[in-house]
Design a protein that fits this description.
There is one protein chain. The protein is mainly alpha-helical. It has 2 domains: about 40 residues, Arc Repressor Mutant, subunit A, CATH 1.10.10; about 110 residues, no CATH class. About 75% of the residues lie in helices and about 0% in strands. The chain is built from 8 helices and no strands. It is globular. The mean pLDDT is about 75.
């Protein structure tokens, strides 16, 4: 991925929406969605990374603002146009997407292998950052802070 794609992913993980990212980078919203899609094909889900980042380092509680924002966003997404869909199977799929998102929010500590891996990686990077801070190693601390998402993605791809 190019520099704009990397910046777009970083902004998304930090909580910016697609419109804000497109405006800030001077690209079309469709381009941001294309970057997301390409990463999903590589096994890196921006939504999972953003969700993971919204959880505090202990992995116990979700930031209330992030919780409400994500819940409302996914609820609106699931219900948008639901009445216009005549195919019951499509309605069920849409409601399933909402239920899955809701379950993720309500049970962030669920016993999901990928969530556990992301949580462990996040804790590892956080621990390394703490060690660098204690040792007053600013270059390492700055590197880890700037590349946290990339480190997690690299490990997930292997």
């Amino acid at each position: 991925m190019g520099t704009k794609a990397t910046l777009a992913k970083k902004m998304y993980v930090e909580g910016k929406n697609v419109s804000e990212i497109a405006t800030a980078l001077g690209i079309a919203r469709a381009t941001v969605y294309n970057y997301k899609k390409k990463d999903v094909e590589r096994g890196v889900d921006w939504d999972d990374l953003a969700f993971s980042k919204a959880i505090d380092p202990s992995g116990v509680r979700l930031n209330e603002k992030e919780f409400l924002t994500t819940l409302i966003h996914n609820f609106e997404k699931a219900l948008k146009g639901l009445d216009a869909i005549e195919d019951p199977e499509k309605k069920l799929r849409l409601l399933n997407e909402y239920a899955r998102s809701y379950y993720k929010l309500k049970a962030p500590l669920k016993n999901d292998c990928k969530s556990a891996i992301i949580d462990a990686l996040t804790k590892a990077v956080f621990s390394l950052s703490q060690l660098a801070l204690e040792e007053d190693n600013k270059p390492v601390l700055e590197f880890l802070s700037a590349h946290e998402t990339q480190i997690i993605e690299m490990v997930l791809r292997k």
